[in-house]
Design brief:
The chain has 67 residues and is mainly alpha-helical. It is 73% helix and 0% strand.
Length: 67
């Protein structure tokens, strides 16, 4: 389920980067071609790290169940 949520978050983030009025609404001033790809790379790395931490915590609970 975490993978589906991450895919949804990534899709929404890409939508914000594509639609001009959403960029203005969220006050994103991405100039040139490098800034959007940097933002996508940061989001990708953060998503992968969150997924890895989530999987680790599900395998090694600390005594209480996280549900």
């Amino acid at each position: 389920m975490a993978g589906a949520a991450g895919a949804g978050d990534g899709g929404c983030f890409a939508l914000v980067l594509i639609v001009p009025w959403l960029k203005r609404f969220f006050q994103l001033s991405l100039e040139g071609w490098r800034d959007p790809w940097t933002a996508v790379a940061v989001a990708l790395v953060a998503g992968v790290l969150l997924e890895l931490v989530w999987r680790f915590l599900r395998r090694h609970p600390t005594g209480t169940t996280a549900r």
